Amino acid sequence: MLEQGTISIHTENIFPIIKKSLYSDHQIFLRELVSNAVDAIQKLKMVSRAGDYAGDMGGPEIEIAIDKDKKTLSISDNGIGMTADEVKKYINQVAFSSAEEFIHKYEGKSDQPIIGHFGLGFYSSFMVAQKVEIDTLSYQEGAQAVHWSCDGSPAFTLEESSRTTRGTSIILSLQGEEEEFLESARIKNLVKTYCDFLPVPIKLDGEVINKQKAPWRESPSNLTQEDYLEFYRYLYPFQEEPLLWVHLNTDYPFIINGILYFPKMRPDVDVTKGQIKLFCNQVFVSDNCEEIIPQFLMPMRGVIDSTDIPLNVSRSALQGDRTVKRIGDYIAKKVGDRLKELFRDNREQYISAWKDLGTFVKFGVLNDEKFKKQIEDIIVFRTTTKLTEKVAAETPVVEVQSSDGDAWQDVTPSPTSENSTPSAPYTTLKEYLERNKERNENRVFYSTDEATQATYIELHKNQGLEVLFMDSFIDTHFINFLEREYQDVKFTRVDSDLDNTLLEQDKDKEIVDPKTNKTRSETIKELFEKSLNKPRLNIRTEALKSDDPQGTPPAIVLLPEILRRMREMNAMMQQQSAEFPEDHILLVNTAHPLIQNLANLNQGIIIQGDGESPTDQLVNLICQHVYDLALMSQKGFDAEGMKSFVERSNEVLTKLTEQASK
């Protein structure tokens, strides 16, 4: 026996700490041991390149073996191995990492980094093993193989071994409750989860069970579009193809590699939970990148790999550090660069992707000042105006964006015609203002619901007024942001008031009835006030401008912009849905034939004298019906309201048919 002694530790409680507190998940022991094996192989390559080893390297590989009879699991490599002195130094002195010393000596001698940062990684094996053995032979000429054994107490044994092949084997005698790790399927799953992209073949029962190639560590110029798509499908099977992606590759001011995808958004996706996988030197660490990725980019998917992200000793959580914030800013900038490049070079594809990208891009603008300044000029809105702008239709290719190697690639197929335009026209706010400055300078008309506000939109379109659609759930807040950014611009929802362009302005031509000394508009207003009997309802009479009065609505409900926003804000603060306000405007369209016929009917009532005649009843019902129809474009009826509406509708039709049959 070479030696018998106790492991050099600061406290005899180190093993209970390792087993219960240091690592949050027992299964990561395999990640640590396989990572150490890869390190041993990379170290041998570095020694060879430095000229300190001239022997046969052989094909690098890691072999995992299961012995169900002995209840052992072993991980073997053909790497650098260890001498007895190295075992004493690197194994017996807990938390002394050999990686740091080795990197310093052989810096620049390898194209693959050393994974290990914590000497404690090896000791994670005691979470699942009642005894751990090391059988190792160093690469050094004439070295003696050694065997180390520990039963989970500070006591160990170190003795000579009969091993004849270079490398190291870790043999775990598993605890009774950890025998799940004797199942091949379980080991394959863990290797796929944590070690799939390590650059060394990992074998189980003679079969290579890891992919080895990490696409994000490749040069973008070496990857095809299909390579990127295949990687996405592998990471997120059974998902729709991504919209586009960004390939990150920089080593200054920090090291970071990765591929981030813009996915198509689905209603069941929780945008508050990140789906980006965090790696450290190709070893999977976590699905949790919330501390790294800006919140507005949480819907993105893909991989980030960096040795500069500070992890705790179990690699299970990030440690607070300024570098994390800088990396987050860097990623946001590269995403912004990608969007600007796509907007500039392939606007058709940019607009096609906007339906999925728009919401969290706007969220980023609201929450990140740097990102806002970067992309505020490329925020687009669907518009009612058909644009004639030519949109480039280029086949997407990988383009290196800068000297640090960041690149991006498009996915959505480009149209084939140079004159192709999007199925729905989109515009930036600056383009809208420039296009409309002569007719409506610094005025923006917008819609938040195309279906319910269709009547108002059509009124504006018929008079040549362009309307923007701001109908995503975030636009309520985004409009306030736009008003702060464009303080000289007035934003008006199409149903808040009507521009003078939509109204006939020549009221002086209205005929005054000599019997009542009132104009027809004044008479109609009084008629509706009497029939509806709603003191808080403000009734206006206007003639809507149109070449086809029958095609305009007989009446519309208007909600003043400021009052409506105050109501929505109060509802949001109280976490309630906004109630329809009793104080609103009913604009009666005096140019509509229905309203003119209604006025004629009312005139006949006046001639007949006092008392409520059948015609008087019909007029009142029609006034109520016109009001109901106007309300329906603003709010849905509750059960009682719908019941009343149907009953009144039936009554109106009954009385009309009675009069028609006379």
Automatic annotation (TrEMBL):
<dbReference type="InterPro" id="IPR037196">
    <property type="entry name" value="HSP90_C"/>
</dbReference>
<dbReference type="Pfam" id="PF00183">
    <property type="entry name" value="HSP90"/>
</dbReference>
<feature type="region of interest" description="Disordered">
    <location>
        <begin position="402"/>
        <end position="424"/>
    </location>
</feature>
<keyword id="KW-0143">Chaperone</keyword>
<keyword id="KW-0963">Cytoplasm</keyword>
<comment type="subunit">
    <text>Homodimer.</text>
</comment>
<feature type="region of interest" description="A; substrate-binding">
    <location>
        <begin position="1"/>
        <end position="315"/>
    </location>
</feature>
<dbReference type="Pfam" id="PF13589">
    <property type="entry name" value="HATPase_c_3"/>
</dbReference>
<dbReference type="InterPro" id="IPR036890">
    <property type="entry name" value="HATPase_C_sf"/>
</dbReference>
<comment type="similarity">
    <text>Belongs to the heat shock protein 90 family.</text>
</comment>
<keyword id="KW-0547">Nucleotide-binding</keyword>
<dbReference type="InterPro" id="IPR020568">
    <property type="entry name" value="Ribosomal_Su5_D2-typ_SF"/>
</dbReference>
<keyword id="KW-0346">Stress response</keyword>
<feature type="region of interest" description="C">
    <location>
        <begin position="572"/>
        <end position="662"/>
    </location>
</feature>
<comment type="function">
    <text>Molecular chaperone. Has ATPase activity.</text>
</comment>
<dbReference type="InterPro" id="IPR020575">
    <property type="entry name" value="Hsp90_N"/>
</dbReference>
<protein>
    <recommendedName>
        <fullName>Chaperone protein HtpG</fullName>
    </recommendedName>
</protein>
<feature type="compositionally biased region" description="Low complexity">
    <location>
        <begin position="412"/>
        <end position="424"/>
    </location>
</feature>
<keyword id="KW-0067">ATP-binding</keyword>
<dbReference type="InterPro" id="IPR001404">
    <property type="entry name" value="Hsp90_fam"/>
</dbReference>
<dbReference type="InterPro" id="IPR003594">
    <property type="entry name" value="HATPase_dom"/>
</dbReference>
<feature type="domain" description="Histidine kinase/HSP90-like ATPase">
    <location>
        <begin position="25"/>
        <end position="178"/>
    </location>
</feature>
